[in-house]
Amino acid sequence: MHKSKLAGFIIDCQTDDLDSAAAFWSQALGMQTSALPPGEAEKYVELIDPENLIHVEVQKVDHPSRVHLDIETDDIEAEVKRLEALGATRVAAVGSWWVMQAPTGQKFCVVRSCTAQFSETANTWD
């Protein structure tokens, strides 16, 4: 048995100016920016949801700009297998998470649980 739920959205930006991209999305969404630790700050800027319900990051990428969602879980392998049974495929392992592709072509990530109240709000799967 494991749990999972929508963690949030990652705004992938093909840009050389991550700070400007993050500033745009911060203002567009009405969310403050938060610097991440060294090693992550070169590629990511977190946007803070004032209600602490959803995780949003702006990410510097090499591929065309897009938005993708993250599914968070307390058991990555179990969640990946559950999604494969629904028709998703594994694309690449990145660090501790998986990039997946839905049967309809959208890419998304399966990541470690990170949002507040994960245990109370996540779906439980057998």
Describe this protein with a few key phrases.
single chain, alpha+beta, 2,3-Dihydroxybiphenyl 1,2-Dioxygenase, domain 1, 21% helix
Overview of this structure, please?
The chain has helices at residues 18-29, 76-85, 118-121; strands at residues 2-13, 32-34, 44-48, 55-60, 66-73, 89-94, 97-101, 107-112, 123-125. With 126 residues, it is of the alpha+beta class. The protein has a single domain, classed as 2,3-Dihydroxybiphenyl 1,2-Dioxygenase, domain 1. Strands 1, 2, 3, 4, 5, 6, 7, 8 and 9 form a nine-stranded mixed sheet that branches. The longest helix is centred in the first third of the chain and has 12 residues, at 18-29. The radius of gyration is 15 Å and the shape is globular. The protein starts with a strand and ends with a strand. The mean pLDDT is 95.
